[in-house]
Amino acid sequence: MQEQPKSQKTASIFSGKSPKDEATHFFIQMKDPLIRQLDLKATSRLSATCTSLYGLFKYDVLIKKLLHFTVLGRLDQVENILKVHPELALKRATITDLSDRTFYNITGLQYAAWALDIEMCELILKNVDNASASVADTQLSELEKNPWGHGAYYDISPLVKKTQGYLNNYNGWDYDKCCQYWQKEVGGEQRKCPAWLIYAWCEAGYDVAWVKKDLKNIKVVRQYEKEHLKWWFEQAYNGGLGVGSTWSCHRGPRDQVQGWSGYGEMKRNTGRIVGDRECQYVVAQRPEALNSLKARLSNNNATDKRHGQ
Questions:
Q1: Which of 121, 133, 180, 301 has a Cα-to-Cα distance from 161 of 20 to 30 A?
Q2: Please, what sign has the CA dihedral across residues 7, 9, 13, 17?
Q3: Integer Cα distance of 115 and 70 in angstroms
Q4: Distance from the first to the final alpha carbon of the chain
Q5: How far is CA 124 from the centre of its chain?
Q6: Taking phi first (over 0 means left), then psi (-120 to 50 degrees means alpha), and beta for anything else, what does residue 265 get?
């Protein structure tokens, strides 16, 4: 029996398909469940293995990048993606944020709304056309059902309560208790802050929203070049890495945020902690701004329907 040419022999093993075609077919079949399990880095690496997979996963990579930059509070990067691909504004993916909270099958708009990042919400909605506005409205309504198990939106009240608890009990606690509570309880809640809040807390200068205690009317400059997020989560201080390890931070009326172990120099630090707590009260009012945005979107949709748009 005459032996088949190598190329034909190889193709016959895969039922008439070349190995490349067979692999591509496999990934098409497995694409959706596979993508749900992969993070941005893994998806990007997979798409780079060959041109066929790049075409197959191109938009999945972009969607994950959009979610990634939304989590990082990067208005600039999100805007750059949506300028070219506005159709991705309401697409879903799974993302884990900087505080290790995982949100399955979420959109950038939904995460921004959950995080109370009103500027990010407005940026994304600016890239949603009239035909998709009702979808955006529905997505925001889904938040109330708490589909991801992290609440309908970021809740700062535990941080407010623990900060106040520290102020109330400092004089009655010993050294170990003061440090443990400040580092782990207060710091643990600080570690849950979404990116936009960290940018606001860390924005350098005296004439800024945090110092003025006005996060509503004063625009926060996110100062990406200063790497505030890296400082917040990775800074080495007092033998630990990042807030919630062996330190947490305070700011108050100072021109910059500062790490602190939680004991000593309380007279000087009290004013700073009180100032931070007052800013936290302001953040606690952010759901009202989110509700106003949702109401505005719903009203616009209702108006469009009445006019047959």
A1: 121
A2: positive
A3: 10
A4: 70
A5: 14
A6: left
